[in-house]
Amino acid sequence: MTTGQHTEPELGPEDERLPSIAEQMADQLGGWRGLVESSIPVVVFVIANVVGDLRPAVIASVAVALLIAGLRLAQRRPVRHAVNGLFGVAIGAAIAWRTGDERDFYLPGILYGIGYGLALLLSAAIRQPLVGWIWSVLVAKGRSEWRDDPRLVRTFTQLTVLWGVVWLAKVGVQAGLYLAHQDTALGVARLALGYPPYALLLLITVWVVRRTTRETAPTPLPGA
Question: Which is more confidently placed, 40 or 119?
Answer without folding.
Answer: 119
